[in-house]
Design brief:
Structural class: mainly alpha
Largest sheet: 3 strands, parallel
Order of helices and strands: HEHEHHHE
Radius of gyration: 15 Å
Helix content: 40-55%
Distance between the termini: 28 Å
Number of domains: 1
Number of strands: 3
CATH class: Alpha Beta
Shape: globular
Strand order of the largest sheet: 1-2-3
CATH topology: Rossmann fold
CATH architecture: 3-Layer(aba) Sandwich
Length: 132
């Protein structure tokens, strides 16, 4: 889990950053973390810890988006059972999981010039889970 959620992101970010610097390209890096980096989830200690490490890594003109459960193909498979999903959805004030576009739109904002003064931020895309 650490190699996937932290190590891979570190290595890819270093490669991209070096290429951007060498080519004189402006830009930003946005890593995808999780709401679980900010709120402990039962039976997810390793996942929560690796995402917290990723958040700390992402502090210098790098930002993270921290979604709740996202309705990707895997998300639909893992969270389609109403009995399983109810406990989580009940903790989300907007009453639903994130769609892929919710996450993509947040990433596009952070990659745009409109976020030029945004760095080291965690953009929660969690329907209010982290503040409820």
């Amino acid at each position: 889990s650490f190699d996937v959620n932290f190590g891979a992101v570190l290595h890819v970010s270093q490669i991209i950053a070096r290429q951007m610097i060498a080519q004189g390209l402006p830009g930003a890096i946005v890593n995808v973390s999780s709401q679980a980096s900010q709120r402990a989830l039962q039976d997810h200690a390793i996942y929560c810890s690796t995402k917290s490490a990723l958040d700390m890594l992402s502090k210098i003109r790098v930002n993270t988006v921290n979604p709740t459960v996202v309705m990707t193909d895997m998300g639909r498979i893992n969270w389609s059972d109403p009995q399983k999903s109810a406990a989580m959805i009940n903790r989300i004030p907007l009453g639903k999981f994130a769609e892929v576009d919710d996450v993509v739109n947040s990433i596009l904002f952070l990659l745009s010039d409109k976020s030029a003064m945004t760095t080291g931020s965690l953009l929660m895309v969690d329907g209010g889970f982290s503040v409820s």
